[in-house]
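Renewal narrative, Specific Aim 1. Our central claim is that a sequence can be written position by position from structural information alone. The example that follows is taken directly from our test logs and has not been curated for this report. It begins with the structure tokens describing the chain, in the order in which they were read.
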């Protein structure tokens, strides 16, 4: 099956920016630039690539700005991080699937959409959480996600995996897989949620973790 070259999409977006600017559609041009910048980060970054937390925040804010074009000013994001954290390094677009999942699965049916993106670090761990005030999930739904991820991880080298995977929570699965390959047994991933009360997804890395741990076990 034929596939569109991502570079063609990138160049097309910039052509659309030129058209919008010539017609003095400044706001539309800015939104398209945001999409192009995020695509550029995705295209030219390897899984292990990193940039500063400040740059990651800027990229996610661009994404949220694009979503506000759809949802209006209904999406509010609160960033919480320790002093000096903005200049530390973070894997490129690590936060993107967390925020995307929160918006489309948690907040899409909520009028006042609120996100809290929190960075934490202590002597035991370094972690990031994304919390929303959305529809939430039951324990059964959460364990369904965990079981699906475990099943996919068991088949990661099998050719039929791609056909078996659906698009629901695929971004979270890819993030989990990325953390596993980058940080191995030190990485962890948790979901805390309650139906009607929102969801909190946390990813992190344990420091000096020596016990046997497999990211597939939650």
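The sequence written for that structure reads:
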């Amino acid at each position: 099956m034929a596939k569109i070259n991502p570079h063609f999409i990138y160049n097309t977006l910039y052509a659309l920016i030129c058209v919008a600017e010539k017609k003095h559609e400044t706001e539309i041009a800015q939104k398209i630039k945001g999409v192009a910048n995020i695509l550029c980060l995705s295209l030219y970054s390897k899984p292990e690539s990193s940039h500063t937390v400040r740059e990651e925040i800027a990229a996610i804010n661009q994404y949220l700005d694009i979503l506000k074009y759809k949802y209006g000013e209904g999406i509010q994001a609160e960033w919480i991080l320790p002093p000096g954290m903005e200049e530390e390094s973070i894997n490129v677009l690590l936060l993107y699937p967390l925020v995307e999942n929160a918006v489309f699965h948690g907040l899409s049916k909520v009028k006042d959409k609120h996100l809290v993106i929190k960075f934490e670090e202590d002597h035991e761990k370094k972690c990031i959480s994304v919390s929303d005030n959305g529809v939430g999930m039951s324990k059964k739904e959460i364990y369904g996600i965990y079981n699906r991820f475990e099943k996919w991880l068991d088949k990661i080298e099998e050719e039929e995996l791609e056909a078996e995977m659906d698009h629901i929570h695929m971004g979270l699965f890819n993030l989990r897989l990325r953390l596993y390959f980058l940080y191995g047994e030190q990485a962890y991933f948790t979901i805390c949620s309650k139906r009607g009360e929102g969801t909190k997804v946390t990813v992190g890395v344990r420091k000096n973790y020596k016990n046997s741990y497999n990211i597939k076990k939650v």
